[in-house]
UniProtKB/TrEMBL annotation, chain A:
Protein name in the entry: Glucosidase 2 subunit beta
Region described as Disordered: 205-421
Example of a GO biological process term: N-glycan processing
The gene coding this protein: LOC100826220
Residue ranges annotated for the MRH domain, each copy included: 498-593
Biased composition regions of type Polar residues, renumbered to the chain: 226-238
Secretion signal, residue range per the UniProt entry: 1-17
Species, as recorded: Brachypodium distachyon (Purple false brome)
SUPFAM superfamilies: LDL receptor-like module, Mannose 6-phosphate receptor domain
Keywords associated with the record: Disulfide bond, Endoplasmic reticulum, Signal
Taxonomic lineage of the native organism: Eukaryota, Viridiplantae, Streptophyta, Embryophyta, Tracheophyta
UniProtKB/TrEMBL annotation, chain B:
GO cellular component terms, semicolon-separated: endoplasmic reticulum
GO molecular function, one term: carbohydrate binding
Record bears the keyword Signal: yes
Pathway assigned to this chain's UniProt record: Glycan metabolism; N-glycan metabolism
Protein name per UniProt: Probable glucan 1,3-alpha-glucosidase
GO biological process: N-glycan processing; polysaccharide catabolic process
Location within or outside the cell: Endoplasmic reticulum
Family label: Belongs to the glycosyl hydrolase 31 family.
Glycosyl hydrolase family 31 C-terminal domain span: 605-692
Domain called Glycoside hydrolase family 31 TIM barrel: residue spans: 269-597
Keywords on record: Endoplasmic reticulum, Glycoprotein, Glycosidase, Hydrolase, Signal
Highest taxon, organism lineage: Eukaryota
High-level lineage: Eukaryota, Viridiplantae, Streptophyta, Embryophyta, Tracheophyta
């Protein structure tokens, strides 16, 4: 201990009290590199040349790569090593050496400047070690949670896969059944058709006979003719109403065009201005792009609206928004008159971002999709409920997540699949097969006329079976989609599949649903920040892309950086570039054992590097 | 009747003033003469001309020993001509296009003065009052100047006459043009009604001091139907909406003389602080203190120097200037202090539109004092800009300028610190709901002046008041830094300008060079374009090229619109980071040279960045070269303006040779060289016969380079000689005005480099000293193979070995390099190659 403490003492003494008496042969050199600098002539590391020992740290750059000046600022590409006893050693750019700014906690980088640097390594090191300790503790617990999740994921995936296999088997059986029923249905329909044709023929014959009879009797137009003419009339009317509809279409078209014609009128106005001899007019007629852009169609706009409109070119904001309180800060302008409708319609060259519309549209679609998915998964959940002796872990979390993030889904739970409930899977499949079989066998094709009740039985069976088939197929698709996902090297992200994470930042709530989408919610309006894209940087980033379009900007996207933490917590949402969001998610999934080992080692060495510090 | 006044401004300038004779006509208002633009001593410097000799209605008077002024009485024509040869240089009204609409006492019955522009109405209560005349530049091949227009051409292209398809005249009318075109005679943010003409053996200039809207036609030879036989003459037609004729004719033997004369009338560019010449990082917007800290440390992590971090409008509380959005910037002083700890500065934006908000102290005060411009009905003009409803202080009024200047004191500007400087934007002025996005022409200013009369100078007065504010704040000891978007003749005295809201495309990169060169020719040497282009996302290759070109702009700032992706130089992969770092390093290594050039500009007005013909006035090849440029007398660079360009043709003017700035390879002069283009840099060359001082250690900011040693790069000409200068002061204060600076001349001849003092002796002066030494002398084109050099005094021997031109991994050792002469820059010494 004492032996190690001695050189440390010397170092500190040298760094603070006698800056120029530093040993030039070691200045800025990492201990592991000291061997490289032994000898009389030393090579530049990049092979560009060599230098003599007295050129080492002589404050003149002989190797462009900085080999000869590890301890000075002479080489722009050099690196300076500071020992930082009591803390961790670091390597800094040579450009930071003697620049008057303390960079090494031991102050060794400012040996030749007027700046006196305090040695802060002990406090800094202590703080860093504390931090590291905490980190190690987090990792320790995190690794446990992670391992549990990995185990659970294995089981759940196996279950999913088993279910999928089973479903595929059932699908096959059911498909066969449906095919048969379909064929039966086809035959019935064929038979019915034949029957119908025969009937028609018969009717025609009877009718012809009747006509013959009538003609012979030379009577006024009969009822059938009257009916015909009525038919024609009706057709004519239909035709008319179609035309009318067509006209309506035109009318709307015209309406759509009318603002454009307004614009061209405006253009004419401008041109008319050109003819004016007056100087300013002549000048303002320059037909450049600027002019075109300047030519906001301002007729019908109030002065304020015009101001907002022009501002929106630079800001790229929805003109409507401008008045309402937005990033450009018109929050206080509450009593802004709404632009006249005609005025707004006229404004062609200001694209409407219509973000709300987009959001509305997307979220609708999204909701529908979920509704659909959930119907199916609920259907199968309910269907199979009896089978599962214990509740499936993954399904349970599925439900949990639904209840807190997709409340609306609850409404649909258990709806419209009563036919599938309350019966075990084996029994329903057996039952359906049996019924179908019965129906198939019962039906007698040779009986004429077709037995209508039997025919409807077949139809019903066909409908039931195909409904069930499509439900099974949906479930298969859902499961296949799920199992197709990248759950990480150890499936540690499996349990993210049906999770959503929320974080609040200012007035927004950010909702991140891995493998699905991310959104920014403010009150009732929701903006899509992106659909699931992929993991990046070896599972350290979740990337969501192709979110709602930003006017004058990119489609929204979000990158969620993952880091080890005991709970799944979303925070640090930020928008460093317009519509490109970032966030941080703490999760046990990132608490990797290897990293723990590495940190533990670092901590161990940081603590063991402090021999006898107390003795100082 | 009109009154005409002629006066001579020595040595080679003539002033012509024409106004109405108010003793015979009595319009309700007099015509506007632009105040506070000309240097205050211009009037006292003028010489009264000797009594003219008049023969047959032609009066002749000597302007100087070598120039005559000839005035033909009817029709009126004025000619400045060489006394000996009688060759005309400049003439006025040679084509009889002079027209002067006199002010009327009242509107005649049945006439309409009102004008309509879209939904806007200009009441024009004073009626028509325009002025038109023609000016001819004799012996000229090209005319230049008249900023600001987007253009890829350095010379002003003809706008009318044979061969001109269709063009509007050049328009001078300060406007905030959304997404301006890179090629258009349409007026942009600033106006300088100054034109320079140049041809082999003739340089002249014409300046019309008038702040109303102006249009200028450059007439193609033969425009008037006469054969264009006459050797080298360019006719121009000038029109202004209002004002008077107050025109200056400048005659130079060299083009630099013409600039010097213009500067002698409108003032020399102010000397910037050292930091201002370095790299600036801006974005609309760095959103909060965390963002600021992140960008700041990003530069450090990537070993990229920068000196100034900028905050755009979002830093304010609802666009109320001089305030902070405390939710994003809770501790502005602390933030500035942290940045300042690294020797860096910050800049905040202060625009002229004041939010009409009763809770805003500035608005309250301006309203109470009646400091806003008035609309035609006499009420405070209520326009629209970033904050919504806005009013505009009347910067024409000196009292209001004083009031404004006081707002920059530390007490008044809460959250400001001594390392905070200012950016004036939107000062054309930009008014979102005004005609052409500016103020209506019938707005009334101080002294009952109509806005139409002073429009082009509004931004100038605003810039002036802001600059004065910083001067006051620093008690006259801290040189102001104010960047302005609008400008007028004389703005060079108040700070820097930039070319406004350009676009991230190759064409805008290309047009930035003629635009910045044109600003330099017209006094505004401290100028640049937004690196990367303001609107849109530059392709990474374009961004790299822009840094490589922009690192040569006198004003070097990266900026971006808030809809664009982040583009700090380390965001595009390691390779591109290295390239952008190298471009910025190049600029930092040349800072001593740039600072010396700024010093020269602050005395003579000769710009830092120069068209080739300013250095090579006899070389016709250079006259319309807008793609290459000189930085000072020593460096020539050629921009690369095309994506994936593989080769480029570079014309190197003059008889002497050139050396590649990066590797020292020699190239012949007066030859077009077809060169391969590398992605590493744009082609750039050192001119043989010159010496460039550098500092080759890169720090976090220029502040930390103060004590770093110099490198001298000597490029020998064919007779083995070279010379250059170095100017050093404290980089900050006005002590240099009392002699606290070092100004050295380095001369290399007969294998010996000598450093001599060229600072004039100021009695009772302050002193500046530095321990800085010269660590390295690189000699390009040296024939001697000597291994030693001898330093005098002291007879000290130092080694010469082969070294690289710049310290970069992979650069090869090519040039004899004097190793560690370690002579102090303040001393007289010589280094002899033994």
């Amino acid at each position: 201990m004492k032996l190690l403490a001695l050189p440390l003492l010397l170092w500190i003494f040298a760094a603070t009290a006698a800056p120029f008496s530093l040993p030039l042969e070691t200045l800025g050199i990492a201990p592991q590199d000291e061997a490289y600098y032994r000898g009389g002539v030393i090579k530049c590391r990049n092979g560009s040349g060599k230098f003599t020992r007295d050129q080492l740290n002589d404050d003149f750059c002989d190797c462009a790569d900085g080999t000869d000046e590890p301890g000075t600022s002479a080489c722009p590409e050099g690196k300076f090593y500071c020992q930082n006893a009591g803390h961790s050693p670091i390597t800094i750019f040579s450009s930071w050496v003697n620049d008057g700014i303390c960079d090494c906690c031991d102050g060794s980088d400012e040996y030749g400047s007027n700046t006196t640097c305090k040695n802060t390594c002990w406090e800094a090191g202590k703080a860093a070690r504390e931090k590291l300790k905490k980190k190690v503790a987090t990792y320790k617990s995190g690794v446990v949670i992670r391992n549990q999740e990995v185990e659970k994921a294995k089981v759940a995936i196996a279950k999913d896969e088993a279910e999928l296999t089973k479903l595929k088997g059932e699908e096959k059986i059911l498909q066969g059944l449906v095919d048969k029923l379909k064929e039966q249905k086809r035959l019935i329909e064929k038979a019915e058709e034949e029957e119908r044709l025969i009937k028609e023929k018969e009717e025609k014959r009877i009718k012809e006979e009747a006509e013959k009879k009538a003609a012979e009797e030379k009577k006024a137009p009969d009822a059938s003719q009257e009916a015909d003419s009525q038919d024609t009339n009706q057709n004519a009317q239909e035709g008319e109403s179609k035309v009318a509809e067509h006209h309506d279409g035109h009318v709307t078209d015209n309406e759509n065009h009318s603002p454009e014609s307004g614009t061209s009128v405006e253009e004419l106005d401008i041109k008319a201005g050109t003819g004016d001899d007056a100087l300013p007019k002549e000048m303002s007629a320059v037909p450049t792009k600027e002019q075109d852009l300047t030519s906001v169609n301002s007729e019908g706009l109030s002065k304020e609206d015009l101001g907002r409109l022009v501002a929106s070119r630079w800001t790229g904001e929805n003109v409507d928004d401008v008045g309402k309180g937005d990033k450009k800060g018109h929050e206080d302008e509450l009593d802004i008159p709404e632009p006249a409708e005609e005025g707004l319609e006229d404004v062609h060259d200001i694209p409407e971002p219509a973000e709300e519309n987009y959001a509305g549209y997307h979220s609708e679609v999204e909701d529908d999709r979920h509704k659909f998915d959930d119907d199916l998964s609920n259907a199968s959940d309910d269907e199979y409920a009896d089978d599962h002796e214990e509740p499936d872990e993954s399904y349970k979390s599925d439900d949990d997540h639904k209840s807190d993030s997709y409340k609306s889904d609850d409404d649909h739970k258990g709806d419209d699949h009563s036919d599938l409930t309350a019966s075990g899977q084996a029994s329903w499949l057996d039952k359906i097969q049996q019924t179908a079989q019965n129906v198939l066998q019962k039906f007698n094709f040779f009986k004429t006329p077709v037995d209508l009740s039997e025919a409807s039985h077949v139809r019903k069976e066909y409908d039931d079976a195909s409904t069930k088939l499509s439900k099974i197929q949906s479930r298969i698709t859902t499961l296949t989609d799920k199992l197709k996902q990248d759950f990480g090297n150890e499936k540690e992200f499996y349990y993210f599949y049906d999770q959503c994470f929320e974080g609040k930042e200012g007035k927004y709530v950010y909702k991140v649903c891995p493998y699905k989408k991310a959104s920014q919610v403010e009150g009732h309006s929701s903006t899509n920040l992106g659909r699931w894209d992929k993991f990046e940087e070896s599972y350290r980033i979740m990337h969501f892309s192709n979110g709602d379009k930003c006017w004058n900007g990119p489609d929204r996207s979000l990158k969620v950086r993952l880091r080890c933490g005991l709970n799944n917590e979303l925070n640090g949402v930020d928008e460093p570039s317009r519509c490109e969001y970032v966030a941080v998610l703490s999760t046990p999934a990132l608490c990797v054992e290897e990293k723990l080992k590495e940190l533990q080692q670092k901590l161990d060495s940081a603590s063991s590097d402090l021999p006898g510090h107390d003795e100082l | 009747p009109l009154l005409l006044r002629l006066s001579a401004l020595p040595p080679h300038a003539l002033r012509l003033q024409i106004d109405e004779d108010y003793s015979t006509s009595t319009p309700p208002n007099r015509r506007f003469r632009v105040p506070d633009v000309l240097l205050p001593d211009v009037d006292s410097r003028k010489l009264h001309l000797s009594k003219p000799k008049t023969v047959d209605g032609v009066s002749t008077v000597a302007l100087s020993s070598d120039l005559d002024v000839v005035v033909k009485h009817d029709p009126f024509e004025l000619t400045v001509r060489r006394a000996g040869s009688g060759n005309p240089v400049l003439s006025f009204n040679s084509h009889g296009l002079f027209d002067f609409e006199p002010l009327q006492e009242s509107k005649p019955e049945g006439e309409t003065w009102e004008e309509h522009f879209r939904s806007h109405t200009d009441s024009r209560p004073r009626g028509p009052q325009s002025i038109t005349f023609d000016v001819s530049f004799h012996g000229a091949d090209f005319v230049y100047g008249l900023p600001e227009h987007g253009s890829t051409s350095l010379a002003l292209r003809p706008t009318r006459g044979p061969g001109v398809e269709e063009s509007e005249p050049y328009r001078l009318f300060n406007l905030d043009v959304f997404e301006y075109l890179h090629e258009s005679p349409f007026g942009l943010y600033g106006s300088i009604p100054f034109m320079i003409a140049h041809g082999a053996g003739a340089s002249s200039g014409f300046f019309w001091l008038n702040a109303a809207e102006m249009q200028i036609d450059v007439l193609a030879p033969g425009w008037d139907g006469t054969a264009s036989a006459e050797n080298g003459r360019i006719d121009t037609l000038w029109m202004a909406e209002a004002g008077v004729v107050d025109a200056f004719f400048f005659v130079g033997s060299e083009p630099k003389d013409v600039i010097k004369q213009y500067i002698s009338v409108t003032g020399a560019p102010s000397m910037p602080q050292q930091f201002a010449v370095a790299y600036h990082q801006c974005r609309w917007n760095y959103r909060d203190e965390e963002d600021v800290a992140g960008v700041d440390s990003g530069f450090d992590e990537h070993d990229i120097p920068y000196d100034v971090l900028w905050l755009d409008i979002e830093h304010t509380d609802g666009k109320r200037y001089f305030t902070w959005d405390r939710s994003t910037f809770p501790n502005p002083e602390e933030m500035q202090r942290k940045i300042a700890d690294k020797g860096r500065k910050m800049v905040t934006i202060v625009d002229p539109h004041m939010k009409r908000d009763s809770g805003y102290y500035l608005h309250e005060e301006a309203t109470a004092k009646g400091y806003y411009v008035k609309d035609a009905s006499g009420k405070d003009y209520d326009g629209w800009c970033w904050p919504g409803a806005s009013s505009y202080p009347d910067m024409l009024n000196p009292e209001i300028r004083d009031w404004w200047a006081d707002k920059f004191s530390y007490q008044n500007y809460k959250g400001s610190t001594p390392t905070l400087y200012i950016w004036n934007d939107m000062n054309e002025p930009s008014v979102f709901n005004g005609p052409e996005v500016t103020m209506p022409r019938d707005i009334i200013h101080y002294g009952n002046v109509e806005h139409r009369e002073l429009h082009n100078a509004y931004g100038y007065y605003f810039h002036m008041a802001t600059s004065d504010g910083l001067l006051k704040r620093g008690e006259g000891k801290d040189r102001p830094f104010v960047l302005s978007r609008a400008f007028f003749a004389g703005s060079q005295r108040y700070g820097a300008v930039w070319t406004g809201d350009n676009t991230a495309d190759w064409d805008h990169l290309k047009s930035s060079i003629p635009m910045v060169l044109t600003l330099g020719l017209t006094g505004m040497t401290f100028s640049g374009a937004d690196i990367g282009g303001f609107f849109g996302n530059p392709e990474p290759d374009l961004l790299v090229r822009w840094y490589q070109v922009g690192a040569f702009y006198p004003f070097f700032r990266g900026h971006a619109h808030h809809d664009t992706k982040r583009r700090e130089p380390w965001l595009f992969g390691e390779r591109r980071t290295a390239l952008m770092r190298e471009a910025i390093h190049m600029r930092y290594s040349l800072l001593p040279y740039y600072y010396t050039l700024f010093k020269e500009a602050s005395i003579t007005g000769v710009p830092v960045m120069r068209p080739l013909w300013l250095e090579f006035p006899d070389d016709k090849e250079t006259y319309n070269n807008g793609e290459a440029f000189m930085v000072g007398p020593s460096i020539l660079a050629q921009g690369i303006y095309e994506e994936g360009q593989k080769s480029v043709s570079v014309y190197l003017p003059g008889k002497e040779s050139w050396y590649d700035l990066r590797n020292g390879s020699p190239y012949k002069g007066s030859v077009s060289h077809k060169l391969e283009v590398s992605e590493d840099s744009i082609p750039s060359f050192l001119r043989a016969g010159t010496i460039v001082p550098r500092k080759d250690r890169f720090r976090r900011s220029s502040t930390q380079m103060v004590n770093d040693p110099y490198t001298l790069v000597i490029a020998l000409n064919s007779s083995g000689a070279a010379e250059g200068e170095l100017y050093v002061d404290d980089g900050k204060s006005y002590d240099y005005q009392q002699g606290a600076f070092i100004h050295r001349r380095f001369v290399f001849a007969d294998n010996k480099l000598t450093s001599t003092n060229i600072a004039p002796n100021h009695p009772g002066k302050k002193e500046f000293s530095t321990e800085c030494v010269i660590e390295r002398i690189i000699v390009l084109g040296l024939s001697s193979r000597a291994k030693k050099a001898v330093i005098e005094p002291g007879n000290q021997e130092v080694e010469i070995e082969l070294g690289p031109i710049s310290l970069r991994s992979g650069s090869s050792s090519v040039a004899p390099t004097v190793r560690r002469p370690n002579v102090r820059v303040v001393d007289d010494w010589s280094v002899r190659i033994a």
